[in-house]
Fold these 2 entries.
Entry 1:
Amino acid sequence: MRHRIPQPIAKQITGERRLGGRTYYLMRRLGTHGNHFKAFLPEAGPNGGFRVVHEFDRNRINKQHIGVLESLVKESNGGFPPILEYCPAPKSIFVITDWVRGHSLQEHLSGARTASNEGEKKIAVKETVKLFRLLAGDLFLLHHKRNLVHGDLKPENLIVRRQRNRLVMVDFGSAWLPVKTNARHAGDGHTPHYSSPELRSDGLFADFRADIFSASAIFFEMLTLQKPYGGSGGKVAELPPEYAETYQPPSELCPERGRLTDRAWAAIDRLVTTGLQLDPAQRYQSGSDWLADIQAMSTALNEKDSAFDRVKATLSRPMSWLRQGFR
């Protein structure tokens, strides 16, 4: 039985793959290299549904890589796209993952910039902090429990999932084991603004600290709607040394500066500024230290809430007494 494909989707189809007894209609390539496609599966629900079809060379390293990602899906509670099926072929392994519904963080940031230009509310700082905290926890799993480096963190590779209020990492085509740094694909991590200086220099060793730089650049932009180092991001390392002095901490640039206490901003500035050091030796040297400062930031934000609640309760008591006097 051949399922009917909606006309708007049919216009986007560029090919098809027969996998696991089902036909996946390929729509567009995802990522900068490798065979990763957005696909339409007609029998996925009453009106069909979207999937992502990944093709990996069939070798020991990729089998291990796939096993690692499967375990991450179970441990992260929503931070990675679910793996639905494996389809081995003579020379390849096809992995089918769910299409994560939502919009990319890049779209989210574009909308926030538009709202800012039109004078509307710009940034929900506390929501931004929560999204980043959950993302950092998922990166910690990737780095220290599975010894993988994502290698290409950027807003396009993060989906804002509203149902769980979190960011989902997609496109693992650039991920590698740190010991394989010098064998990584040409172009891995070379996304302007978000890649760390060591990723932009071929031959240099890169480990989890490169992902911390990228995550910090993304968090900086979520808070300020600007890119660090005067808009240069990691590219600043390729410019004359004085350009590094253009760095300003998020507290000086966030349009919602007054919504947090000085203590909270000090914790945010410390976290982001350390993560954005151009020399990896000056960044966080362990994921545990990074998470400790993230927890300190969250604690500082919660202390503001507690203080506000106490003031609110104090102010409400005279009003309660006054209302009772008129009963």
Note: Confidence is low (pLDDT under 50) at residues 176-189, 307-313, 315-327.
Entry 2:
Amino acid sequence: MKHITIILLFIYFFSSCINKRKYIQGCYKTETKFELGSWFCIENDSVFSFTWQCGLITGKTKGKWKVKNNKLILNSELQPIIDTTGDYKLKDKKNTNSDYWTFELFTPYNKTKLEGANGYTYIDGKIKNSYISDNEGILIIPKNPIDSIIISYIGLKEITIKPDIYDFYSIMMNEYSYDIMYEFFTKTKWIIRRNYLISRGFNVCNFGKKLKRYKNKIQ
């Protein structure tokens, strides 16, 4: 009798998994306004396709899916390359006893001076002031009590500088070694809830902040 019960339970759980896989197949649309052009389709051969839109930026990701513990697990065909280049290359730094921090910024591969880079001073995790580099790539920030300085430029790696004895830095900013404007999935788990798929991870559209995305199944 015990063996029969175990067999019946196995059949029940196995059939439940099959039914779950069949139930979630189909296409889903986003309910997030900024991503209204995004579609997620689950096919019956464990293949998915995700056509994503972030404002005017669009792309398509393909990969494999499976269901485990009521979670949809996704792995894209393309995976991000492990980045070992570092955030920046320090060309020089020194103490000039100035009342300002001065950053001399260069584009990747030391090609040109970097105009229009943004510098932010932070206290307790909040932005205190913002500054911008001039046409000579010079970013000047008054010395005030702060926790850190963050320098950013679209498409280049963000730099974090902690105040120390130095007040002049000559820096070459680095590029990302993979396309950050691409929707990668690496053992990514989405919650299955009735006719919704729910994502609570990062994506290309929220620039590093956590976002809850609801995908509504199209009947």
Note: Residues 88-173 form a domain with the Immunoglobulin-like fold (CATH 2.60.40.10).
